[in-house]
């Protein structure tokens, strides 16, 4: 799986990440390993994350992952925080469908390193987006934007499971031009799948989701695939259920 890394000071003070209830972690058997966020959808039941968080290839088997989509009781925990076993202010929401682009499933191509997941209503029959809110997707963003990125580092770097946040400017990655890049500290493994929110202000004005954190070659950078027409087609398929 790709590691989410980066480094460098933010240009503006980041928002209080605990004020973003639509951002949380993917969890199974009391373990969490990636970040995800709620994306606005007609059925109000969709989250976005990185494809490498939920769909594995043969080479991932050495790390204990069975090739193919995640198998097991996968759940989304919005606004999770706190030392183990942690706090779940909005409970956990069962993932019912995993939608990944064939660029990732067939070709293991980083250009498809994003995924949309459907979740079931909670025990009260409520839909996820109605409870925690969502960010609207942006399918045609410029690679040069003011962006807020939020993610949950794994416990070895983050024993209290607090999300990290950085607000800065994006630029096109010079090595992989289909990626956009930021430089910010603290985005260790676990932050993969975290939302890149263009023009974010606060929980009530979340901005637009232009991509999700894919990884980084060093501990001083993070990259994301810029959402485009292919991402939109995948989203629309997931939104139809």
From TrEMBL:
Set out the biological process GO terms recorded for this chain's protein: proteolysis
Keywords noted in UniProt:
Signal
- On whether Calcium is a keyword of this UniProt record, the answer is no
| GO MF | serine-type endopeptidase activity
What is the designated name of this protein?
Peptidase S1 domain-containing protein
Q: Does the keyword Signal apply?
A: yes
Q: Where is this region: Disordered?
A: 152-172
Question: Where's the Peptidase S1 domain?
Answer: 16-219
Species in which this protein is naturally found? Streptomyces chattanoogensis
């Amino acid at each position: 799986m790709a590691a989410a890394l980066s480094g460098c000071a933010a240009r503006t003070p980041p928002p209080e990440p605990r004020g973003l209830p639509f951002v949380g972690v993917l969890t199974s058997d009391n373990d969490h390993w990636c970040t995800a966020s709620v994306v606005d959808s007609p059925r109000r039941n969709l989250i976005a994350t990185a494809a490498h968080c939920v769909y594995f290839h043969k080479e991932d088997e050495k790390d204990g992952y069975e090739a193919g989509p995640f198998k097991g009781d996968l759940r989304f925990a919005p606004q999770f925080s706190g030392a183990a076993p942690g706090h779940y202010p909005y409970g956990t929401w069962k993932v019912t469908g995993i939608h990944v682009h064939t660029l990732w499933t067939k070709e293991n191509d980083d250009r498809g390193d994003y995924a949309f997941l459907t979740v079931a209503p909670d025990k009260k029959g409520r839909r996820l987006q109605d409870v925690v809110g969502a960010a609207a997707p942006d399918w045609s963003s410029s690679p040069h934007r003011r962006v807020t990125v939020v993610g949950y580092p794994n416990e070895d770097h983050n024993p209290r499971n607090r999300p990290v946040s950085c607000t800065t400017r994006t630029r096109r990655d010079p090595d992989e031009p289909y990626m956009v890049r930021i430089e910010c500290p603290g985005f260790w493994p676990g932050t993969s799948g975290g939302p890149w929110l263009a023009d974010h202000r606060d929980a009530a004005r979340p901005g637009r989701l232009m991509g999700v954190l894919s990884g980084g070659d060093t501990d001083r950078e993070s990259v994301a695939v810029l959402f485009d027409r292919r991402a939109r087609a995948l989203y629309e398929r997931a939104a139809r259920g």
